[in-house]
Amino acid sequence: MEGKRMMRVRVEGVEREYPFGTSYQTIAADFQKSCQQDILLVNRDGKLCELHKTLDRDCTLKLVTALDKPGMQTYERSVVFLMLKAFYDVVGADNVERISVEYSISHALFMRATGNFELSEALLHQVEARMSALAAQAIPIQKQSIGTEDAVELFRRKKLDDKARLLSFRIDSHVNVYSLDGFTDYFYGYMVPNTKYLRCFALQPFESGMILRLPDQKNPRQLAAFNPSMKVFRALYDATVKSAALHVSNVGEMNEVVSNGNATQMILAHEAMMEKKIGDIAEEIANRKDIRFVMIAGPSSSGKTTFSHRLSTQLLACGLRPHSISTDNYFKNRSETPRDQNGQYNFEGLGAMDLQQFNADMARLLQGETVEMPQFNFKKGVREYTGEYLHLDAQDVLVIEGIHCLNDQFAYALPKESQYKIYISCLTTLNIDDHNRIPTTDARLLRRVERDARTRGYSARATIQMWPSVRAGEEHNIFPFQDSADVIFNSALIYETALLKPYVEPLLFGVPKDCDEYIEAKRLLKFLNYFMPIPADDVPKTSLLREFVGGGCYKA
Question: Side by side, which strands form the sheet with 183-185?
């Protein structure tokens, strides 16, 4: 009989045999003692599998925990499901109008809840207690495939119109839904097998909603510290309100706009909002007569270059004369560049910059002197002088872009009143639906995949491979200084993922199935599958997105 057939399974270098049909949860249990963290998924020969799946072939398994990105994503998704179930239990389904998972802030998820209840600390204590009680019972999280039309009708009955709208644009005849003790929902991605895996969480009021605190990925058995940047939160909240006013808060609503032939109006409206924000920043700079240095910093693929050009245009309109300066021209010569623990050049650290020369040049300019400006020759790895001189008159202002521009140590010799600091980041607030958010890092990664392919000839695999080190550099060199900015500029455009889809999909399909980056590429492809594509024809040449897809009027 087939059920008695034995399968060879190699796990972390150990080979064992299990009967055909053995669950991955059973296999994981045999190796749990040797694993410091809970095993949440398995990677079977390059394919992620939930633990309720069963063995049907000889294979090699890698154990996935919350220390791994897919594991932490699975934990986050599962604990949101647990929270929703508990909230409905405590308040009553008839009293809930809407619960929306808005965005991540400082290792927590900001959510809003409306209905016939008061979102108080006492209520959240009750919900958290119910979550703990459900977790203690090890209740199975069950997965079921149902017809797409049946799913649409199911969520309409449950008054989850966002999900019904989203699934109405699905081409697949079936979709997977999850159930927890009679509570059914749709989620983008994998789940843990039962509630006992969800041990670390907390709920507390925050601003106009609440936060669901999550584990620290470096130590998943402990809650991560909650130290939110209120400036970033305000920028996110402002973007959410503006998107809601245009009736585009989730992918389903945007797909309706596109299918109804109104994509151009949506594009131009969001571009107009961004242009107004840039104009407001320029006007504030012009009104502060002591500002001579506009310092711009932000993480990778935020659109810093195009933003700098557009800001310069607006500064011109305000009567100022902007001059662009890249801090890359103040790199130390290659022979003096520090190296990291692996012996590689560390170009992202502050130690790679010639701070003394930068500050000396800027101080001289501020004092009215004429200064010869350097150019860094990246092929030779040396700073050169080619006869380019600069002098600041009363209407001149320097627009300086670089990853360290918010760090006070970078411009230590310049008076604070002469600086205006701008933190720019792609803070997307569009959600897949009310319970499935889109991480801002995904939006930036998609931008970078396309730009790297178009301008550098990099494959999507290469971009995905280097992304963790890029993110690590941002965590150290940029994010700690974001609150020192005078203003937060959100470079996310609501329609950008739909625009990037036809550019990025072929690149992601090119990632080989037998490499480590395939899992991330497949996840991004599944994510893109929710979007109806938008052609670039009606995107203005001044758009920040032109920095990534090409066709812009600025050199980026």
Answer: 141-147, 174-180, 183-185
How far apart (Å, rounded) are the C-alpha atoms in residues 476 and 499? 31
Task: Reduce the DSSP state of residue 99 to 3 states and report it.
Answer: strand
Residue with tokens 């934990």, as numbered in its chain: 75
- What CA–CA distances, in Å, run from 30 to 14, 26, 57, 227, 356? 11, 7, 18, 38, 58
What pLDDT, on the 0 to 100 scale, is given for residue 242? 85
Task: Look up residue 351 and give its DSSP letter.
Answer: G
- CA atoms of 338 and 184, how far apart (whole Å): 54
Main-chain dihedrals φ then ψ at residue 293, nearest 5 degrees? -125, 115
Instruction: Report yes or no: 40 and 28 within 8 Å, Cβ to Cβ.
Output: no
Instruction: Give yes or no for a contact between 251 and 286, defined as CB atoms under 8 angstroms apart.
Output: no
Nearest to 77 by CA among 165, 171, 201: 201
Q: Which helix (H) or strand (E) holds 460?
A: helix 460-477
Cα–Cα distance between 353 and 347 in angstroms, integer?
Answer: 8
Pairing of strands 293-297, 419-425: parallel
Domains and CATH numbers, the chain: 2-65 (3.10.20.30), 70-223 (3.30.980.10), 230-548 (3.40.50.300)
Nearest to 151 by CA among 130, 129, 173, 131: 173
Is pLDDT at 3 greater than 60 in this prediction?
no
Q: Strands, E, within 236-359: which ranges?
A: 293-297, 321-326
Taking all residues of the chain, what is their mean pLDDT, rounded to a whole number?
A: 95
DSSP letters, 245-301, are HTT-SBHHHHHHHHHTT-HHHHHHHHHHHHHHHHHHHHHHHHH-TT--EEEEE--TT
**H or E segment to which residue 475 belongs:** helix 460-477
CA 397/CA 30 separation, integer angstroms:
65
Quick one: how far is CA 298 from the chain centroid? 13
Q: Residue 258 pLDDT > 60, yes or no? A: yes
C-alpha span between 257 and 241 (Å, rounded):
18
d(CA 320, CA 44): 60
Closest by CA position to 128, among listed 197, 199, 229: 199
pLDDT score for 244: 82
* 3 state SS of 111: strand
